[in-house]
Amino acid sequence: MLKIFGAPGRYLQGPDAVERLGECAARFGDRAALVIDRHVLEILGGRLDDICGAHGVRLHTCAVEGDITPAAIERLCARALACPPALVIAAGGGKALDAGKAVARKAERPLLTVPTVASNDAPTSKNYVIYDDAHRLLAVEHMPFNPAMVIVDTALIAAAPADFFRAGLGDAISKKFEAEQCARRGGPNMYDGASTLTAQAIAEACLRTLLADGQAALAAAGTGHPTPAFERAVEAMILMSGLGFESGGLSIAHALTRGLPCIDGLAMAPHGLQVAVGLLVQLQLEQRDDGMRDTLLDWYGRVGLPASLRELGAASIDAAQVRQAARLTLKARHAANFHRPLTEKMLVDALLRHA
Hints:
Layout (H helix, E strand, L loop, with lengths): L9 E5 L6 H5 L5 E7 H16 L4 E7 L5 H12 L5 E6 L1 H14 L3 E5 L11 E5 L5 E6 L6 E5 H6 L2 H12 L1 H11 L11 H24 L7 H21 L3 H8 L11 H16 L5 H12 L5 H4 L6 H13 L12 H10 L2
Parallel strand pairs: 1-8, 2-3, 2-4, 4-5, 5-8
Antiparallel strand pairs: 6-7
């Protein structure tokens, strides 16, 4: 495989960064489809209209509600393309960003992302997730390229509830270990290429930053006032984590998000919290003896991440459901990115150790 590294065209971060949205959007044209969370629209919609209007960019607003299903995407695309846009702006949480990616792909237009929470690293990536009507993951789709621009307003993100930030910590902390396993196996990253040393170094920096600053950053979450530690952690959770997973690759921690929802009580558990437990399962399978697992367990305790299926929300530990979770996990693409072959029994045993 060729080595392939991908990234957004430009990344802006800081308090009131959203004030640059009009200037950035105007580089692509004078008409934009705004794909935005309904809740965020009520809070931020007027401000975004004013910011873009000041630079001659007219917004055609498409509000997002519910899961991103094929039918929901079709409805959004029909509304967005009724007034053909020069670009697509996606604003809000992960669902709105995923919806914006689907619209940008259909419209064949550049995408600008404006995250309002740091619950995952979707803002920088080309990937988006589609669900069925029962909230079961149907597919992971891809835009041809990463977002053209990512605007991360840390004042907005610091105003979001701390639970979103905690989920983002869980999603990001795994990336070093997953990229490492992908490279050891010689597996493909999200561009179907081999990982670069650059991607591995970024994933390593993500881990170091979160261990150093994650707890202090969490204390600022929900206050509306970003601190230096908060700024560093947000960069790790969105930029470093996004580059680390797409160009470095994923492994068992993320593959488990295909299987865990079939265990009673876990279907609606936030993605990042599922990944946090999945990472501990992955480290168990790695049979690490370098003390890192204990380091992470201590950090999990300090930032409030779950360390077991029950802490994640499992109503009970049913053996048949655990086996089904293992089977679904091993069918996921990322499960192959592991340095040794895994059997269903190995994964079941590792899951039960984290019951």
